[in-house]
Amino acid sequence: MKKWMAVASLMALLVCGAALVANAQDAAATPAPHNAWGGPGHSGMAFLHQLNLTDAQKEQVKTIMKANHASMKTVMQQMAQNHAALLAATANGQYDAAKIQALAAQQGQLEAAMIVNREAVQHQIYTQVLTSDQQAKAEQLRTQQINRINEHIQKMSNGTDTPPSPPAE
After folding, report:
1. In whole angstroms, how far apart are CA 34 and each of 8, 23, 58, 150, 156?
2. pLDDT at res. 47
3. How confident is the model at residue 167 (pLDDT cuts 50, 70, 90)?
4. Of 77, 120, 90, 85, the residue nearest 105 (C-alpha)
5. Integer Cα distance of 166 and 104 in angstroms
6. Which of 2-11, 106-115, 119-128 has the lowest mean pLDDT?
7. What is the torsional sign of CA 20, 15, 119, 151?
8. Band of the pLDDT at 163, cuts 50, 70, 90?
9. Are 159 and 87 in contact (CB under 8 A)?
10. Who has the most CB within 10 Å: 1, 48, 99, 144?
11. How far is residue 51's CA from residue 137's CA, in Å, rounded to a whole number?
């Protein structure tokens, strides 16, 4: 059961990272209506679609995203290699706790690098592209996201939020 949870967690990280790279390639992707500055399962840039950017601003965002694409791609490749190593380490029911811990720690460092890069890009967009009105709207969206997270945390602590079912075997 723990093996499946670890694999599912790493798959989720990989999917999130892939979404970020896909979004980096096309800043005009479909918006996620409930996402402000990113969050679980979101690319992290969907908030831009709710700010009514001008064509010139969209071009500025694309330029910023392209400038950061190479470093993001490198980290994504490392994450994929790490994930493949984890799958190989757990093939056929193998379980080496030390090896899995090392791979999980490495994946955590890679995820941290992705988060830092994403936040740096968001900072650039916020400070170099957005007008003061758009910044205010972005902050409103951020507050809404924080409120949703806090509601989810409250549900979890009250026991009213049920955990996901394990994958079918």
Report:
1. 24, 16, 20, 14, 20
2. 77
3. confident
4. 85
5. 20
6. 2-11
7. positive
8. low
9. no
10. 48
11. 7
Q: What does the domain layout of the chain look like in residue ranges? A: 54-131
The single-letter DSSP state of residue 98 is H
CA angle at 10 for the pair 18 and 89, rounded to the nearest 5°: 120
**Judging by beta carbons within 10 Å of its beta carbon (0-12, 13-18, 19+), is residue 138 exposed, middle or buried?**
buried
Asked if 151 and 160 count as a contact pair (C-beta separation under 8 A), the reply is: no
Per-residue pLDDT at 31 exceeds 90:
no
CATH code of the domain occupying 54-131:
1.20.120
Please give the structure tokens belonging to residue 127.
Answer: 């400070």
CA-atom Rg of the chain in angstroms: 18
- How many CB atoms neighbour CB 133 within 10 A? 10
Cα 123 to Cα 6: distance, rounded to the nearest angstrom: 32
**Side-chain half-sphere of 147: how many Cα atoms within 13 Å?**
8
pLDDT digits (tens, 9 = 90+) for 140-149: 999 999 999 9
Average pLDDT of the residues in 99-123: 94
Question: How high is the pLDDT of residue 19?
Answer: 45
